[in-house]
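Technical appendix A lists one of the benchmark inputs used to test multi-chain prediction within the project. The record comprises two sequence entries:
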Amino acid sequence: MELLVASAIGILTAGGIYLMLRLRTFPVILGISLLTYAVNVFLFASGRLSVGAPPILRDGVEVYTDPLPQALVLTAIVISFGMTAVVVMIALGAYLGSDDDHVDDAIDEPSTGTGDAT
Amino acid sequence: MTHWIIAPVVLPALLSPFIVLAARYHIGIQRVFSVAGVLALISVAAGLAWQASDGTITLYQLGDWAAPFGIVLVADRLSTLMVLLTAVLALFVLLYAIGSEWDNRGRHFHALFQFQLMGIMGAFLTGDLFNLFVFFEVLLIASYGLMIHSGGNARLRAGVQYVLFNLLGSTLFLFALGAIYAEAGTLNMADLAQRVRLIDGAETVGIRLAAVLLLLVFAIKAAVLPLHFWLPSSYAEAPAPVAALFAIMTKVGAYAIIRVYTMIFSPDLDVTAGLHTTWLMPAALASLAIGMIGVLAARHLDRLVAFAVIGSMGMVMVAISLFTPTSITAALYYTVHSTLAAAALFLIVDLVRTGRADLNLIAQPVVPGAALTSALFFLAAIAMAGLPPLSGFVGKLLVLDAAFSTSAAAWIWTVVLSSSLICVVGFSRAGSTLFWKAKSMPVTEEAAESPAATPAPATLSYVAVGGLLALLVAHTVFAGPATAYMADISDQLFNPEPYIETVLDTPGKLSTPKEGY
């Protein structure tokens, strides 16, 4: 199971970074989402992996799983969900405004000045 | 237990929804409440700073849960100083936003402003790493809204870059936190400071990785080379009052580095030896150099100031990266100076923009109010470049003095002094082009026909900038007491036992962790 979870995190991260480097809004946002999935699984695994163990005290149970990472993951999921929604809206605005979905700086277009020479 | 510590977080958190819900369509009421909130914040922050000034460390347990289980807020000298600095900065920024009508060019400026303050205050006060992450997100999500306030294509594009870069930073932060939790089993700073000392010397891979990841996250926030790329376009495109408020955001990164890397991963810790103590210095020197070269190379005034911010952050980081009590003293003094100077410069850039089509560094005819603006620019540029008599000079002297007896002294002296020269040249060039050459430019016909088309900036704007510069002057005049207090702060930082005791030795505390955990 450790191998499965570890390789899942690795593949998600690799895919996320690849998509981030595409420098177009949509792939970059997908890449960020993949990265946040990877980090969520990573956080979940940081309390050690155990199957079928309850996180909350209960009568007659010997093995518990660590409840704290689950709380951390919940917070992280909520925050990353909200952030993704925000970035989608801003990116949509930027795309509709300038008809260009590149994330990087455009090559210094002379639209702002009447000539740069002093 | 006193509840005052949570006031800087709760006050803006309550004020912000009130402004959105109750005063939505009344900019006047929004302004009154926003200013009143910030004034209240200043008095609370001053009270907290006064309480902490004699070395008292006050603890606030959220929900009354004891430390390693619950989240705590801790007010010591460093946190309260930063909280006070933020509150004072916020007042002048807010006055400028009102005076220049920036708050009326889009919606919800005041609500977002208060949320931003809540995030910054929380980040300074929290004693828990995961809570620090949450407050980072609060201040970031408010800053996304502020950054694209009043819209515009260039601003939206810069906003996308800013948001994406920070999302990546947040993801890295979570990876670092996960790694720390997996290795040490806690995220409370005081608890962590004890536990990293118990980690077996042979199994340090995880914690070293986590320490470096965490440093990367804070370096993104502090715009240390090579993680500074987000800063120039974001700060240049952001509305002026927002950019001025952002001057404190880079300091949040510097604060986090000071806090975490003096208390948890302290320089004498064997487990993380040779990481940040070795590698932060070259990066800091490089960002100082690149920032000042950028000042010289910039073709727009707003970019020039953004690069000056990178340079001054480089200076702060150089001082931090020595990790000695005297260098942290210098770093703190310079942090206060650089926050005020950068904020003043961003506001002055906006004053310069009044009556000009753009901020290209080319001479244009004189506009109304240029004389006063140029005088303010002159003062702020002197402060930023670190020329006497203003506080930049004192701060630079302190940094040089702290570096004098270290092995890297030659490097630091060379880079600091030569970058100062470059910075002076860059600012003089910009100032003389914008203000001196303007007199020799012919006034165009349409401008001559309608001189009232571009009114001079409002008096309140000048009051705000003047207030910031007055604070800089005060920071210079009272440099003696200020440095003495900074020395007290760094003394408290390098002796973290009282902090750890205050946080952990409470009723319901965890038993001492066993050796070799």
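Residues 109-118 of chain A have pLDDT under 50 and may be disordered. Chain A touches chain B at residues 20, 25, 28-29, 32, 35-36, 39, 42-43, 45-48, 68-69, 72, 75-76, 79-80, 82-84, 86-87, 90-91, 93-94, 97-98, 103-106, 112-118 (CB under 8 Å). Comparable benchmark entries are summarised in Table A2.
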